[in-house]
Specification:
This is RNA polymerase sigma-70 region 4 domain-containing protein. With 57 residues, the chain is mainly α. The chain has 3 helices and no strands. The longest helix is centred in the first third of the chain and has 20 residues.
Length: 57
């Protein structure tokens, strides 16, 4: 179970990086690369941005 969490964390960080570095890509396009839906990409990005904002305060 711990291994899965680490893999998801790595994937989520890669998702956020791709989202930030490639604004021309849509959520669905990014989702295709990671085999998840565009809605899941939005959830991941939103959560990471919220955590980032809390850390900056």
């Amino acid at each position: 179970m711990k291994f899965d969490r680490l893999r998801k964390k790595d994937r989520n960080q890669a998702v956020v990086k791709m989202y930030d570095e490639h604004p021309e890509l849509g959520l669905a396009e990014i989702g295709e690369k990671f085999d998840v839906t565009g809605a899941r990409i939005w959830q991941i990005v939103t959560r990471y941005k919220e955590l980032e904002a809390q850390g900056a305060q």
